Automatic annotation (TrEMBL):
Protein name: ABC transporter permease
Record InterPro entries: MetI-like (IPR000515), MetI-like_sf (IPR035906)
PANTHER family in the cross-refs: ABC TRANSPORTER PERMEASE PROTEIN HI_0355-RELATED (PTHR30151:SF20), ALKANE SULFONATE ABC TRANSPORTER-RELATED, MEMBRANE SUBUNIT (PTHR30151)
Keywords associated with the record: Cell membrane, Membrane, Transmembrane, Transmembrane helix, Transport
Domain ABC transmembrane type-1: 85-265
Originating organism: Nonomuraea marmarensis
Membrane topology designation: Multi-pass membrane protein
SUPFAM superfamilies: MetI-like
Signal peptide extent: none
Protein family membership: Belongs to the binding-protein-dependent transport system permease family.
Highest taxon above the source species: Bacteria
PROSITE patterns: ABC_TM1
Broad class of where this protein is predominantly found: membrane
Pfam families per UniProt: BPD_transp_1
Amino acid sequence: MTLSKASKAWSSAGVLAEAAARDRAAAARERLRVRGGIVLLGAALLLFWEYGLGLIVERRYVSSPSEVAARLADLALDGRLWGHIGVTLAEAGAGYLIGIAVGLAAALLLVAVPVLDEIAGPFLAAFYSIPKIALAPMFIMWFGLGLLPKVLLAALMVFLIVLANTMAGVRGISPGLVEVSRVLGARGATLVRTIVLPGAAPAVVASVRLTFSRAMVGAILGEFIAATQGLGFLIVRSSRQFETATVFAGIVVVAALVMLVNAAIRAVEARALPWSTERPRG
């Protein structure tokens, strides 16, 4: 009887191991297909840009991947590119951190004081609808031509998204769970720490992960208006001089930086909060 049970246990373990191996192999094949599709689509787009887009649009206005790559190499070798990257990353990074901190603090305040949420709600909705490009010249006039207006624009872009997603995450918490927690004695800071923050965490983490791109938009928007350094300055100056390859080179660098930073944030999130899958809004 003992041998029979042991053989059945070994048989069950073998079946489970075989099923797990099949799942891993299927997942690996799926990842390979996705990566292959990305490579093929990217290659097709580059080939179309190199050889086909000039048949639709005037060639001097679209440049080509080979010309953009050559221009990127020139900018990198003479050192100008790294200076522009450093300035834009400093502006976007500072605005990103400020926007996250202020957005979370404001959301927690509105959660802790519901009447304040009702009072401020219409004004926040109206402010959210304002096109941020309309604020950029005002920020330049108010705060000068240095880093400060770009940092504030980047922070504003991040603040609104973090605030909106944090509030949405809080509102998605089951009212029954909150009521039960209150019955059990949770009040004020304890309720926020034990129920509200864990419940809103997926939306908050997802918005924190993806808002760096908004910080870059804010910083570059400020550089478009008035700057002497930065990727936005490089793009605007090159467009005014009809240096199309340099314009696209700047755009490619911006996209690559956002992808790299988002990948780094996603890696940290996957290690710290592997269960977080909520998608942000905005």
